[in-house]
Amino acid sequence: MNRISIKLGLLFLVFILLIEVGLFFYLYTGLAGTRISEELESLRLRGNSHREVLEKHHDSATLSHVALMESEAETDVIITDEDGKIIRTSTPLVKGAREAVEQWQGYSLRYKGEIMQGNWKNKPYIATASPIRLNKKNVGTVYMFENTKDIQDMIARLQHHFYIVGVISVLFSIITIFALSKFITLPLIRMKRATQKLSQGDFSVKLGAHSRDELGQLGTSIQTLANELHRLKEERNEFLSSISHELQTPLMYLKGYADVAKRQSNSEVERNKYLNIIEEEAQRLSQLVKDLFQLAQLDQHTFLIQKQNVKLYSYLHHIIQHFDLALKEKDIQLQLNCPQEIEVNIDPERFQQVVVNLLDNALKYSDNGTEILVIVRELPKKVTITFKDQGIGIPSTDLPYVFDKLYRVEKSRSRKSGGYGLGLSIVKEIVEAHGGAVTIESGVGKGTMVEILLREDV
Ligand SMILES: Nc1ncnc2c1ncn2[C@@H]1O[C@H](COP(=O)(O)OP(=O)(O)OP(=O)(O)O)[C@@H](O)[C@H]1O
Ligand SMILES: [Mg+2]
Known about the structure:
Layout: H1 3-56, H2 60-72, E1 76-81, E2 86-89, H3 97-103, E3 114-117, E4 125-134, E5 137-147, H4 149-183, H5 185-199, H6 214-262, H7 268-300, E6 308-311, H8 312-321, H9 324-330, E7 333-337, E8 343-346, H10 348-364, E9 371-379, E10 382-389, H11 411-417, H12 423-433, E11 437-443, E12 447-455
Parallel strand pairs: 7-9
Antiparallel strand pairs: 1-2, 1-5, 3-4, 4-5, 6-8, 9-10, 10-12, 11-12
Helix pairs in contact: 1-4, 5-6, 6-7, 7-12, 8-10, 10-12
Bound molecules: adenosine-5'-triphosphate (ATP) and magnesium ion.
Residues 357, 360-361, 419, 423 line the site of magnesium ion.
């Protein structure tokens, strides 16, 4: 039994009891009230009709006849003379009727009849009085009585029913509490335990089959969250171990070359050569750390993309100029195919990194004497920038992973060319932060094509 099902169950119980009490009062006052006024009315009319008979035949025989009629009926009668003296009664008479009539003497009564006692709850009878008049002169009164026992019995029965309903609804609520705890709150409790486990870093959460309602959806969401956290944790561990592995090799180099450079037997030229290697390797390391830092920022979305309208042609042209020397060295032709007027909304500094990384790859992984194409196209609501090379290409088994951090197709091949496998992951993060998308196509020996899509409305 858990708190939430008790709460829900009690709420249910209170709700039912409220309805029941409301219904009871409605029936109690309404039902009893109308019943009583009906009885009073018919009692008064009955008294009036006796009175009319008596006004027509005011004699001893008629008086006795009326008394006899009432003796047979459920109702009772007491007839008095003009002085209020009781001259006829029906038998048996409801208890206290005589005393009441004696008390009521001297009242001035309306001709259409008067209600003398309407309090059915506390008195054993209700009563009406109809004056008898001959030639505008009071000659007596017909008092009618009716036992209230029937009505009181009816009300008692009503009360009894309500007690039974009350008990049944309490039982029903207890059953509901059990049912609730089984069907509604049990999954909630399970989810609570699951999230507690999650917050303690245990991601092996299994919530089992889910229903299609909101609770089931919540369960599915929690399961997805747990799986995602699990994946992130593993990814992070993997990433950390690859980083330490990556750092290990250059540091080993550094240490090795430093040892060699320290040797007394070295000539000046040799020593400089070693020191240059050390410097280069340190530079590469520093670049790696910068890239990693940038990726960490991109991952956490802690950096700001400050977009502005940029004329793409002159922007790309300017960046490409930095590659002139390297291109010439490898005798590679670079063609920029971009309409002059195209403008895009980008963060020029961040986006420069995208272009540089892609050109760097195209250059690094292409043979001498080949060609690189940069093509810009404006389509409805979007602009694409395509980088095409005739380089060595990427095997299709590696293609899905090239955007992963620290992923390189062939460790030895890019070690030579100095990459850590971060270039494309930085490209992807920056392009996506701009609201764009990046795709890659490649074939071994055929070349590689990377396409960047920028939407104009973001
Ligand atoms: N244009 C391309 N032609 C052939 N292979 C490519 C090309 N671009 C990327 N690759 C392959 O994809 C891998 C990942 O590329 P990425 O740019 O992320 O890393 P990198 O170039 O090795 O290192 P970094 O860019 O960090 O210096 C590369 O190691 C390379 O094998
Ligand atoms: Mg690269």
